């Protein structure tokens, strides 16, 4: 940020949005991506820390995570630890090392890491994101991830918008988060979160049926994605080893992962199968 001339710290959303309309202005949340990237096109930052957007609360049948809530707050939140086997809390913990968790925020992480483990957990739990330009607009997380450039206008010099909240429905399904990483504190190479309601049909035969199945994967593309075909295969079916294996293989079928220093495309595809199988097995267990 060699050319940074102005820092604004508005106390209202309206002021923040106004400051963001200047050419070269950008929203500053935890600042971990902005400062690391040292972007020389940024002339002004709009610090969001005085907008009162750091909270986690229950409202309208959902857990609402304010955009400025630090990852540490999500990881330690009793509400989120109790929801869906703590998948979102665990994902926040796995998103970054401890120092970064105190600084990086929920919205900043979704934007900086759209294929990261937090995005994956939220996608598997059917989260929604509220974006404010003039009026608040709430969109499904899948739409937010695929259209974030357009929704936030981060690349186009036009009207900028802000993320204010992320809502996770309080339906409380069973969930399982699976990751593979080079070290326990490193960013996962591939991650999978599966969620479902599990109904026990015949306890004696250990016959369990999965409903509302959602499987989300990260580290296998530009953004976190749902394994729609695998979900359909498992929906309302008795979960057995053969079916779970078939669904796990299907999850990696059309993936085009990147090759990078963390893992090859081939490794990522194989891990997508392994982690999907583990996640669904854990739902059944
Ligand atoms: C040393 C270091 C190590 C890292 N290690 C990891 C790692 O191991 N794993 C990993 O996944 N990531 C890692 N990261 C990336 C890190 O997770 C992200 O940088 C961080 O999560 C971003 O959150 P932030 O709140 O700091 O966002 P910022 O850096 O403040 O912002 C990120 C982007 O989002 C925009 N933005 C932020 N909030 C809003 C909002 N409310 N509305 C609209 N736009 C907004 C900003 O304008 C910016 O474009 C690392 C980063 C650093 C610096």
How would you characterize the overall build of this protein?
With 285 residues, the chain is α+β, with helices and mostly antiparallel strands. It has 3 domains: 42 residues, no CATH class; 114 residues, Uridine Diphospho-n-acetylenolpyruvylglucosamine Reductase, domain 3, CATH 3.30.465.10; 111 residues, CO dehydrogenase flavoprotein, C-terminal domain (Enolase-like, domain 1, 2-Layer Sandwich). Helix content is 37%, strand content 25%. The strands form 3 sheets. Strands 4-5-8-6-7 form a 5-stranded antiparallel β-sheet. A 4-stranded antiparallel β-sheet has the order 9-10-11-12. Strand 4 and strand 5 form a beta hairpin. The model has no long low-confidence stretch (mean pLDDT 92). The structure holds flavin-adenine dinucleotide. Flavin-adenine dinucleotide binds next to strand 2, helix 2, helix 6, helix 7 and strand 8. The site of flavin-adenine dinucleotide has 31 residues, from strand 2, helix 2, helix 6, helix 7 and strand 8.
């Amino acid at each position: 940020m060699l050319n940074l001339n102005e820092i604004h710290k508005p106390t209202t959303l309206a002021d923040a949005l106004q400051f963001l309309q200047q050419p070269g202005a950008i929203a500053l949340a935890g600042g971990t991506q902005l400062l690391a990237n040292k972007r020389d096109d940024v002339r002004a930052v709009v610090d969001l820390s005085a907008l009162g957007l750091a909270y986690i609360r229950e409202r309208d049948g959902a857990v609402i995570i304010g955009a400025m809530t630090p990852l540490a707050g999500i990881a330690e939140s009793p509400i989120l630890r109790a929801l869906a086997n703590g998948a979102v809390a665990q994902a926040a913990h796995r998103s970054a090392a401890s120092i970064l968790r105190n600084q990086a925020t929920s919205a900043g992480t979704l934007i900086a890491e759209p294929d990261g483990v937090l995005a994956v957990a939220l996608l598997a739990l059917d989260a929604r994101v509220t974006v404010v330009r003039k009026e608040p607009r709430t969109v499904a997380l899948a739409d937010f991830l695929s259209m974030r450039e357009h929704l936030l206008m981060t690349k186009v010099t036009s009207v900028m918008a802000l993320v204010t909240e992320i809502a996770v429905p309080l339906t409380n399904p069973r969930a399982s988060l699976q990751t593979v990483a080079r070290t326990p504190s490193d960013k996962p190479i591939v991650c999978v979160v599966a969620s479902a309601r599990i109904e026990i049909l015949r306890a004696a035969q250990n016959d369990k049926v999965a409903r509302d199945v959602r499987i989300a994967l990260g580290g296998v593309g530009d953004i976190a994605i749902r394994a729609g075909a695998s979900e359909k295969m498992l929906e309302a079916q008795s979960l057995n080893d053969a079916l779970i294996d078939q669904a796990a293989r299907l999850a990696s079928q059309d993936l085009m992962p990147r090759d990078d220093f963390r893992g090859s495309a081939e490794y990522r595809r194989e891990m997508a199968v392994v982690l999907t199988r583990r996640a669904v097995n854990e739902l059944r267990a």
